[in-house]
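Support reply, case 0932

Customer input (verbatim):
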Amino acid sequence: MNASSFGAPLDHVDVAILDTLRSALEVADPMPPDLDERVKFALTVQSLRAEIAELERLPAELAGARSGDYTRVHTVTFTSESVSVVVTITHLDAETSRIDGWVDGPATTAELRERDRSSTAAVDDEGRFAFPSVPRGLVQFVFRSEDADAKPVITPSMEV
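Our regenerated output:
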């Protein structure tokens, strides 16, 4: 490299070198498939100073169906220090699901975060909220209270 090329725009040789370097690094040290979701989650938690809700698992005997003729519904429970949430996912078709939830705690809004967008639903006096049409994929929830001092509660990402 000579001094006159320093700071010059990249040319086709530079692009070819960078492409070769990228290919070699992808083979030698591939990125974990869920790294982007983990980074987004960590950044969100840090920026919100949020309380983290943990996923609760049902015992296998409670999760079974009583008959073979049923609509597939999945129920997930999250708990944190200040909030417990039960979320029911009903698959409407191959591409969309309905999410109904119940919050036991001070949350007044439920935010549903998807890949490129988020939507908010009010939590009613009974603790209920719903998202009637959600594209299938990874989502996470953020629950907020009207109390300015209360930390939001954020869930891990999950597949709907």
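We compared this against your earlier run and they match. Two observations from our side: The chain has a mean pLDDT of 82. The two ends are 52 Å apart (CA to CA). Please reopen the case if you see a mismatch on your end.
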